[in-house]
Design goal:
alpha+beta, 219 residues, 4 strands, single chain
Length: 219
């Protein structure tokens, strides 16, 4: 999908969109990394412009509507390519205007150019932490080690405490917890589960961890 957007500085741009929602049974069967991979593949399949080809691999996530347990994932790329803008405007003329269901995507695009670089970097770090907490929530449903070692919401809590430490409040030792979990999964031959904590973030390398049915020795 694609939508035109005018950025706060007047730049004519577009947002390329890939999106998909999964319910709890599908997540439990395939895992969130598979959902994120499908959404990123959809984003790249819909366009060959530089913005999409060089997309950093991050996604946005939110809960499914109406209280159903699950995740709706977005992969968004902001683009100023004239050809993409022409295509978006042509499409919107056919449907009688900009798609009313894509206000979220246009608002996201505008936020990418507001504030200084440090503020935008912090926004991206917080988004990554939110995604990791979503990953942790679902991973803890099937992996007792994840439920034992981590606390719910610990990625965003640790980031917030780093930015605004509370006097007398001991922060959760996220770094130590990650080390413990990595060691447990290495011993189990399930480093794919450790990698699943970071899936959907810009720093995640899709081929860096073993598939779920592999062992460390088979690498």
């Amino acid at each position: 999908m694609i939508t035109s957007v005018t950025l706060p500085d007047g730049t004519a741009a577009v947002v390329h969109v890939g999106s998909l929602g999964w319910g709890s049974l599908t997540i439990e069967r395939y895992g969130l990394p598979a959902l994120y991979r499908i959404v990123l593949d959809e984003l790249n399949a819909d366009s060959t412009c530089t913005a999409v080809r060089e997309h950093d691999g991050g996604v946005l996530v939110e809960s499914l509507s109406q209280g159903e347990p699950g995740v709706f994932a977005y992969a968004l790329a902001l683009c100023t390519d004239p050809e993409c803008r022409t295509f978006a405007e042509s499409y919107e003329q056919e449907i009688g205007g900009r798609h009313p269901g894509m206000d979220f995507e246009r608002a996201w695009a505008s936020r990418q150019t507001v504030g200084d670089q440090d503020e935008r970097d912090m926004d991206h770090e917080y988004l990554s932490a939110e995604i990791q907490d979503v990953n942790l929530h679902w991973l803890a449903q099937t992996d007792p080690d994840a439920a034992r070692i981590f606390r719910p919401g610990c990625f965003t809590d640790s980031l917030l405490n780093l930015a605004h430490p509370v006097p007398g409040h001991a922060a959760f030792g996220l770094g130590k917890a990650l080390e413990q979990y990595a060691a447990a999964k290495r011993d189990e031959g399930r480093m794919d589960r450790y990698g699943a904590l970071f899936a959907g973030t810009a720093d995640f390398q899709w081929d860096a961890f073993l598939p779920a049915d592999a062992t460390e020795a088979a690498r």
